[in-house]
Records
---
Amino acid sequence: MTPHKNPPPAGILETVKCNLCGGSDFKVKYDSPAPSGAPGEMADYLASTDRYGRYGRIVKCPSCALVFTNPRPPTENLVASYCAAVDPDYTREDASRGINAFLSLATIRKFVKGGKLLDIGCATGFFLNVARSDFDATGVEPSEWAALFAREKFGLDVSCGDFQKTDFAPESFDAVTMIDVIEHLCDPSAAIEKVAGVLKPSGYIYLVTPNIESFSARVLVGKWWGLRPAHLYYFSVPTLSALLAAHGFEIVMARSFGRIFSYGYWADRLKNYNPLFYKVVRKIIKAADISEKFVYINTRDSMEIVARKIPRTGDGK
Ligand SMILES: [Zn+2]
């Protein structure tokens, strides 16, 4: 274990083992002041929070190369904060999120055309709202506010709670999606095992998550946008593939994932890197009157992965 410069607040944050191989040794990859993680001070762990340069300590497992936040707030504090999360900023780009949902659906449809789909961590339901054109779509979401939003705005079938505690029928879904979710989970390995249980033989899982081995992540080092308090795990194609393989999946597609957002949204992401450049870009966007117009950009630092559940011997499929 490498000594670190920013000791976490004593007695609050917890040290965890590697979620992929179970190892307890690690090397510090990035170090920054840690958010407290105490109950009542969990705002940093909201999905839309981007406290650049204040994400705590991020380590790498020397055995399997999994990158994760360590130490981190106690699981009960994280779960309580997700359940209580009210995050109106998340809906600021709702039109863009709807379009991005179509991009994900188009990829999924290359492998599975219809049937039952479960979206884990469905947030306010933007993907489910699109997916229900092809699937009998169901969602589960820990935030009471987001689940209510999905039900009331879109009329979606969304239950509020922790996926690990749900009792969906075994082998009942044709597809399971986790879009920008796995990096937030306290126990990704347990989640993927449970997904394997609810998927039909030869069912598919679709994931989108930041890629810690991407060019941007390596060039921007500790200032990469993906490093944020709300992210507990930082996967690469090899580590996410290893996690999926450990639970009986085979990767059928892995590639970078671009997104559509307004020019104004993309420009705002420059603010933390280069304030002067941000001001120049903002002026150009204002002069051209394109702040609300959409543009597709693939920064190649998010990845989308599709994996197929390998039927067990005797399934006959
Ligand atoms: Zn490991």
---
Amino acid sequence: MGSNQRLSLIDIGRPGDPAVFGEQVRTAAAEIIARYPAGEARSALLPMLHLVQSEQGYVSADGIAFCAELLELTKAQVAAVATFYTMYKRSPTGEYLVSVCTNTLCGLLGGDEIYRALSERLGVGMNETAGTPGAPGSITLEHAECLAACDYAPVVTVNYEFFDNQTPDSALELVGELQAGNRPLPTRGAPLCNFAEISRQIAGFVDRRPESVRAAATGAPTEAGVRLAQQLGQQAPSYPVSDRAGGPEHAGADAETKAADNTGKPDYTSSNDAPLNTVKSDPAAASPTGGQSERVDEE
Ligand code: FES
């Protein structure tokens, strides 16, 4: 692990050359930037980092320089983001990124044993690659925080596709198949692709394979609560924002929110758990047009 980390730090310290990215990547980058309001290209940084990662298998010094140039950021700003999120890799990644959830629930149910078994079989540690990065059958191993699939614990993902309810034996069989050049079907979700392809998808370019479009994203455990509620005719109630804020200490913030809303309408939330109070972070959303006309005018 140590040597990989040293290499990546040295790499990120290079000046970087944005010219290594050709016309095709620049066209894709322009498409990403065009998704954001004029003058706010910097908002495109996260997908842009996935785009450069799709080209080189990691976020290199060149990738950082490329993002900085196109988004009018400093390289330090780009590097700060790239080194904060674990999805951005700092050394070249294998054809497959195998992530083992070792967070509390998965860890207790066997995630730690799975990680140990894979680490031993592959002969690598965290963020290290068995095989030549990018080459067929190469595998980068990582342990991950909660992969948002606790109802299938312990889980392993391969290039972010789920393999549910794993055991050390099933996980060893899985990586054996990958190393042999096979692509076992995930428990749910799209069929596997390589790390470059999934990085491009995460950058916002759609996976158009018919089998991906048809693939089911959820399984029975995910839907069990909803189905039971349907059977019982139950719905989650909406509730006032003031209740949600959690007590008198938040009264000032609530009053501020209501004043900002100024709609004269009851201050209720939706019945799901989506982020609320967006008026504060996006004042345009409070306007009668929801900010649409302002954005059109800017263009
Ligand atoms: S703890 Fe492993 S998916 Fe949540």
